[in-house]
Structure prediction request, 332 residues.
Amino acid sequence: MGRGSGVRALAARLGHAFTPHSHDSAGKTDSALESSSKGMRVLGISFAVLMVTAALQAVIVAWSGSVALLGDTLHNVADALTAVPLAIAFWVGRRAATRRFTYGYGRAEDLAGIVIVMLIAASAGLAGYEAVRRLVDPQDVRALGLVAVAGVVGFVGNEWVARYRIRVGREIGSAALVADGLHARTDGFTSLAVLLSAGGTALGFAPADPVVGLLITVAILFVLRDAAREIYHRLMDAVDPDLVAEAERILAGVPGVARVGAVRLRWIGHALRAEVEISVRHDASLIEAHAVAVEAEHRLIHELPRLRAATVHADPDGPAGADHHAVLATHR
Prediction:
C-alpha cells in the first residue's frame, strides 16, 4: 500500500468515527416506505374481501332474520373497518420527523389501535343487544340452509384474510397488523358458530339462534380484551423481554465492550428504537471509545430484528472506585 492510500484509509476511519452512523437514513427510510406500502396493500385487499363477505352475509340476514348471523356479519364489518384507521396510520407514519415530532409519526399505529378497540367494542354491544332483544321477542328463522352457507363463507373469508395479514405483518414487523390478523382468525371461528344456530333451529330448538348470537358476543368480548391488552402494552412501551436479552447478547459480543449497562427498547409503529449503555476501557481515547460505540450500534441494527435506530452511550469502565455519574446522583 502506498503512502497516499494509507493516508486516505486513515482519513476514512477518522471520518467514520466522527460522523453519525447512517443506518437511519436512506437505506432504513427506503425499507420503512416499502414496509408501509406492503401494509397498505394487504389492508386494501383484506378490506375488499371482508366487505364482500359481509355483504353476502347481510343479504342472507335480511332474508332469514338470523340474529346469530347478524352478529357475525356485524363483527365482519367491524373487522373490515379496522383497515381504515390502520391504513391512515401507515400513511401518516411515512412522514418524516420534524422538530416537534422528533421521533416521526410511527406511533400513529397505536392511535389506530385505540380506534380498532372501539370498533370491536361497538360490534360486541350491537350484537349483544340484538341477541337479547330476540330472546325477549322470538322470531322465526328462515332459509336455514343459506344461514349455514353464510357461516361457512364467513369462516373462509376471515381465515384467508387472517393468514394474509399475519404473514405480511410478520414480514414488516407490524404488531398491529398481526393482531388484526389474529382478530380475523377469531372471527372465522365465530362464523362457524352460525352453523350451530342453523343446526339447533332445524332440530326444533327455537332459542338456538339468539343463544348462539350471545355466544358470538362473548367471543367478540374476548377478542376485545386481547386487542385492548395489546394496545395498552404498545402505549406503555412494553417489549418482549427476549428482545432485551438478545440486545444484551449482541452488545456483549462487541469487541471493546467491557460491560453492558441499561438497555431500553421501544416500538414506534412497526419499527424498534433502542437506547443502550455500554462501558469501555477507562484509558481508551475518545476515538477508540467512539469506534466501539459505532460498532455496537452497527451490530444492533443488523442483528436485532426490526431495529431501525439505536443511541449508544459509552461510559468509562474504571478506575476502581470512580463514579463518573456522581453529578447526576440526585437526578436519578
In short: The chain has two domains: 26-235, 240-331. The two ends are 51 Å apart (CA to CA). The longest helix spans residues 26-64. Strands lie at 259-268, 271-281, 307-317.
